[in-house]
Design a protein that fits this description.
Elements lengths: L2 H7 L9 E3 L20 H4 L3 E8 L3 E5 L3 H28 L2 H5 L5 H11 L2 H7 L5 H20 L24 H12 L8 H5 L26 E6 L10 E9 L6 E8 L3 E8 L7 E3 L3 E7 L5 E9 L2 E7 L2 E4 L1 E10 L5 E10 L5 E2 L10 E7 L7 H10 L3 H11 L5 E7 L4 E4 L9 H7 L6 E2 L2 E2 L2 E3 L25 E4 L2 E4 L29 H14 L9 H9 L4 H16 L3 E4 L2 E4 L1 H9 L11 H12 L5 E3 L11 E3 L4 H20 L8 H4 L1 E4 L2 E4 L13 E2 L2 E2 L3 E2 L4 E3 L1 E7 L5 E7 L14 H7 L4 E2 L4 H5 L5 E7 L1
Parallel strand pairs: 3-6, 10-21
Antiparallel strand pairs: 1-37, 2-3, 2-37, 4-5, 4-23, 5-33, 5-34, 6-7, 7-8, 8-9, 9-17, 10-11, 10-16, 11-12, 13-14, 15-16, 17-18, 18-22, 19-20, 24-25, 26-27, 28-29, 30-33, 31-32, 34-35, 35-36
Length: 791
């Protein structure tokens, strides 16, 4: 059977296969208790899939099997234990069935049209064309394990039912290979064509009377919500000369983009621990015995727009060189739930050029002269499972580099890694269109430069403006590894979502295509904070090397670097200016505001008082023209810009207006100016308010949390920010020393015992010592074990 045929059919028959559960011991908490060893008998040995799942404290599953299929089986069962409702909902999403089950609101019809139009049979077949045999077996087992979990927890005979949020719901159903392929494609295209499902779903040809699109452009990414940090330290930067990694992705606190902790073992073949997105069946950030790695979202573009010149007599035809080509159409049917509970079917037509789908909104009008289409490089990226298999098996940084170069399967992320030998790696080997500066200059449209506020490359839809092909690349039309940035060092590399340029300021990376990122431009305060805090340690007169605790503290000191750099200037303005400031029709007294800021510890820990003022005021002040005494200097990208122009009356006026506007906003929201940060920013779990440290990217925080201010509540709920955090190194004896914490805990189900436990630890800036060795696992006081067998 061909790979693509396997992927299209895998798991379908699992819906009806019988299964046999072999418990290693009697059921107790959550239906399971600790056991001395997994079951071993003739019944189990005859089953296709066999795995043992052992849970240590805080619901961390350790899955062990003798083969890849069994590993996938146990892995899916463990993920479903914490996240079955979330995962089931994501399968609904990528099938294009949201409106059917949840109604048309919140753009669900457009999302369904988008997924049904883009994830075609051809796309599904391509997704299965390059999957290693190990990952084929793991995925087949994963399908069976997920279906097994549903079967075990539904029906009158089930000892335990599904969580309340999806219990007895018709949208929770068994999956097959196409579901897994759909979910993989959906993850890959989120930063390309997936930016605006509505623009694709609502694109319609112009009538004789030109129309104005009612579809809004994609919402610009909110910089207060964005971010991930990663630091890799080499042998010159650590106490014992071993490598060390801080992984700190800032991902959503709800939904299928949450991370889930797991440890996967096939004795003699695989031993890897870390996290994967709930929607991905592999470890995407983690470590093994020899290597640790993390990711940050790269600045590289995943797509470009093409501007088509239309046939003036036919808006469904476009000029391509000397020929005229017809747009193709795809008619999709979407079931839509009505207010009375009935379901009606709607048909939509979407339009495609050979580049990709037509998109239309207020930024990208479809007129009788032009239309815009998007080409997404990750629609052809079918290599992610291969990529993460190679990561999991790597032993050195050189292995990681080789894996990236030979696969190019990381869709939209930088990779930061270190090994036990003390090498540190930064690489942006993500999937990027093969478009260089010369091509942009010769082909760029003069009509559109930005889409939804974000930078975008718009090229003329002509043969000479096609993406270039390079036989060294892993797919046509993308940049080869030789034209992508990477660096290996003995001291450190760091990335906080700016481009590759100064991942280590001592060795700038320059001369790459602008579609990867910008060079010689101002860096964010968060990028600067990361470099500054690393250099503070390495340039100290004493104790100038990192151990694991010091790297943990670098993140959990919750320092606001923006305030450290600039608050004294603001306080100097406070001393010089009148404290009564006009804001619209109100006069605001900022005397107390200035006093609270003066007493603030310039951190955003749960006990810090005054952080809310800075959070609201600094983004307003930062937008002031001609703000800096020392402007950005390309020769000092970490140290500039700096020092507010306190002597400038216009700047002082802007500072006071920013402080007064922030004061008014907080007063209107009924948030005390000096309330402890943990009473202002919190996560609510079953009525319990848990203070959450960290703050906004825009405010200058390295430890990022993103939440919008809600009147009468504060910064809640948390939207995104510090999620999975890991510090991994090796002891003098060569043993893995791994610490981590999942800020939002393993499950988002209120009826789970692992809904808030790690969140409470995060509130106190505590970490878990991750049990990785067999001795550490068996010594865990809360160990529970389940032996699974099935077909």
């Amino acid at each position: 059977m061909k790979k693509e045929e396997w992927f299209m059919t895998a798991g379908i028959s699992n819906r009806t296969r019988s299964v046999a559960l072999v418990l290693a011991c009697a059921a107790a908490t959550a239906g399971l208790v600790g056991c001395s060893k997994p079951a071993s008998n003739d019944a189990a040995s005859k089953q296709r899939y066999n795995a043992t799942v052992r849970w240590t404290a805080h619901g961390v599953p350790h899955i062990k099997a003798d083969d890849w299929g069994g590993l996938g089986y146990g892995f899916a069962y463990a993920v479903a234990t914490d996240a079955v409702c979330t995962l089931a909902r994501e399968f609904v999403n990528v099938r294009g069935e949201q409106a059917k089950f949840f109604g048309p609101e919140e753009g669900r019809v457009e999302a369904d049209v988008f997924h049904k139009s883009v994830i075609t049979d051809q796309a599904l077949a391509h997704a299965g064309a390059r999957i290693p045999k190990e990952m084929q077996a793991l995925t087949a087992g994963y399908i069976a394990g997920y279906n097994r979990y549903i079967a075990d927890h539904t029906g009158a005979a089930a000892k335990e039912q599904l969580p309340a949020s999806c219990r007895d719901q018709p949208w929770v159903r068994p999956i097959d290979g196409t579901d897994m392929a759909r979910i993989g494609i959906g993850v890959g295209i989120r930063y390309g064509v997936g930016r605006s499902p509505a623009a694709l779903a609502n694109a319609t040809p112009p009538s004789k009377d030109e129309k104005i699109s009612r579809t809004l452009p994609p919402v610009p990414e909110d910089v207060t919500m964005m971010g991930s940090n990663a630091i890799a330290l080499g042998k010159a930067a650590t106490v014992n000369g071993k490598g060390m990694v801080l992984g700190n992705p800032h991902y959503p606190w709800s939904g299928s983009s949450r991370f889930h902790m797991a440890h996967l073992t096939i004795p003699g073949q695989l031993d890897v621990m870390g996290v994967g997105l709930i929607s991905t069946p592999f470890i995407s950030i983690g470590f093994n015995h020899d290597i640790a790695w993390s990711h940050t979202v790269s600045t590289g573009l995943r797509s470009t727009l093409y501007e088509l010149t239309l046939d003036p007599n036919d808006p469904l035809s476009y000029r391509y060189g000397e020929e005229t080509r017809k747009l193709t159409t795809r008619v999709v049917s979407v079931d839509v739930r009505q207010p009375d509970g009935t379901v009606k079917t709607e048909e939509r037509t979407t339009y495609f050029s050979h580049f990709g789908p037509v998109v239309e909104d207020k930024d990208l009008p479809w007129t009788s002269q032009v239309a815009y289409v998007v080409r997404d490089a990750n629609l052809d990226n079918n290599r992610s499972s291969e990529q993460y298999l190679k990561f999991s098996l790597a032993k050195t940084v050189d292995d990681i580099v080789a894996a990236l170069q030979s696969t190019q399967g990381t869709a939209w992320v930088n990779t930061i890694a270190a090994d036990r030998d003390g090498k540190a790696l930064y690489a942006d080997y993500s999937v990027v269109p093969n478009v260089d500066e010369a091509l942009i200059k010769s082909c760029a449209s003069d009509k559109v430069q930005r889409w939804g506020g974000a930078r975008v490359v718009v090229l003329r839809g002509t043969p000479d403006c096609e993406w270039r092909n390079d036989e060294r690349a892993q797919q046509p039309g993308i940049l080869p590894p030789q034209q992508l940035p990477h660096i290996v060092r003995d001291d450190y590399v760091t990335n906080s979502n700016d481009s590759y340029w100064v991942t280590n300021p001592a060795q700038p990376l320059e001369g790459f295509s602008p579609v990867i990122g910008v060079e010689k431009t101002e860096r964010s305060l968060r990028t600067r904070a990361g470099v500054v805090m690393v250099k503070e340690v390495l340039e100290a007169k004493e104790s100038n090397r990192f151990d694991a605790q010091r790297l943990q503290d670098l993140l959990f000191n919750h320092r606001n670097y923006g305030a450290e750099l600039l608050l004294n200037d603001l306080l100097a303005v406070c001393k010089r200016e009148p404290k009564s400031v006009k804001v619209e029709k109100d006069t605001i007294d900022v005397g107390k505001t200035c006093d609270v800021l003066a007493a603030w510890d310039r951190k955003q820990d749960v006990g810090s008082r005054g952080a809310q003022i800075w959070t609201e005021a600094w983004p307003l002040i930062a937008a002031t023209p001609d703000l800096w005494v020392v402007p950005f200097d390309v020769k000092d990208p970490i140290g500039t810009p700096r020092q507010i122009k306190v002597a400038d009356a216009k700047v002082r006026k802007a500072v006071m207006l920013g402080l007064a506007t922030a004061t008014k906003k907080l007063n209107d929201a009924q948030i005390p100016l000096d309330a402890p940060w943990g009473e202002v920013q919190y996560a609510e779990r079953n009525g319990e308010k848990i203070g959450i440290p960290g703050g906004s990217h825009a405010g200058g925080m390295f430890s990022v949390m993103g939440a919008k201010l809600q009147a009468g509540k504060g910064y809640a709920p948390i939207v995104s920010g510090n999620s999975w955090m890991q510090v991994v190194t090796w002891t003098d004896a060569g043993e893995v020393d791994a610490r981590g914490i999942l800020s939002y805990s393993q499950s988002e189900e209120p009826d789970s015992p692992f809904y808030a436990d790690q969140t409470r630890l995060y509130s106190k800036s505590q970490w878990l010592k991750l049990p990785f060795t067999e001795a550490e696992i068996t010594a865990d006081a809360e160990l529970r074990s389940l032996a699974l067998s099935g077909n």
